[in-house]
Design brief:
Blueprint: H1 2-18, E1 30-31, E2 34-42, E3 51-58, E4 67-71, E5 80-84, E6 87-88, E7 93-100, E8 106-113, E9 121-129, H2 133-144, E10 149-150, E11 153-154, H3 165-169, H4 193-199, H5 217-229
């Protein structure tokens, strides 16, 4: 009886190893295509320190790249090159994207590019603005602020949900403080109460916003500063 039990256990182990119970994931075959890109970054003061910018191949709406290369911070406003010598089969698009360091999950896509499968090489030259309001929304407001300033309520009457945040910030007087400042005054950091809230703790603001950043407050605040001083609007 013991012999039969041991034999049965061995058969179970063999069936697991063969993939009958847990089938192997489909292998991604590589396309014989190289994709080369050079990028010039505007507003490079907003280049991230604790996020990463990658050049990667993606499929569909997945926030994770199939393969990618990290793009380093430019020096002296030079162009940065990135290339993938082989692209996985099934790739639907290439993208320059901001990702979380630990999970490699996309937080914001700067730009997408769609390869021609009939070609063996793709060459791209592109200027990328690092301080768009869309990035501020994706990196800061949506993941960190709308719990209190959006669907979860409108603290201080401020709506930071996508599509509403800009009109609730720029040129709007602060309702949470006796300060004469606007929530955001374009091209004027000293007259932007949003920065006061994120970098200090004004006595009339009950919640400490300086510790709310989920990754790095300096990165988030630096991005907002750069956007305020940039030519970018909504």
């Amino acid at each position: 009886m013991i012999r039969y039990s041991i034999l049965f256990a061995c058969l179970l182990l063999i069936s697991c190893d063969s993939g009958d119970i847990y089938p192997e994931e489909k292998r991604i075959e590589e396309m014989k295509m190289s994709v080369n890109a050079v990028f010039h970054f505007e507003n490079d003061e907003a280049f991230p320190q604790n996020y990463r910018i990658i050049w990667g191949a993606f499929v569909g709406t997945s926030p994770y790249p199939l393969v990618c290369e990290v793009v380093g911070k430019p020096t002296a406003k030079t162009w940065r090159a990135a290339s993938l010598q082989t692209v996985p089969k099934g790739t639907t698009h290439m993208a320059l994207a901001l990702v979380e360091k630990n999970e490699n999950k996309v937080k914001y896509v700067f730009k997408k590019f769609f390869p021609d499968n009939s070609s063996t090489e793709m060459n791209i030259s592109e200027t990328i603005d690092l301080a768009t309001f869309e990035r501020v929304q994706a990196q800061v407001f949506t993941p960190q602020c709308i719990q209190c300033h959006g669907a979860g309520g409108l603290a201080a009457g401020l709506d930071l949900t996508e599509g509403n945040a800009y009109s609730n910030l720029v040129g709007v007087p602060s309702n949470a403080d006796n300060s004469p400042k606007n929530r955001v005054t374009k091209y004027n950091l000293q007259n932007s109460f949003l920065l006061d809230v994120l970098t200090t703790r004004p006595p009339t603001v009950t919640t400490n916003h300086t510790t709310l950043s989920t990754l790095d407050a300096n990165d988030d605040v630096n991005l907002i500063r750069t956007w305020i001083m940039s030519e970018n609007e909504e």
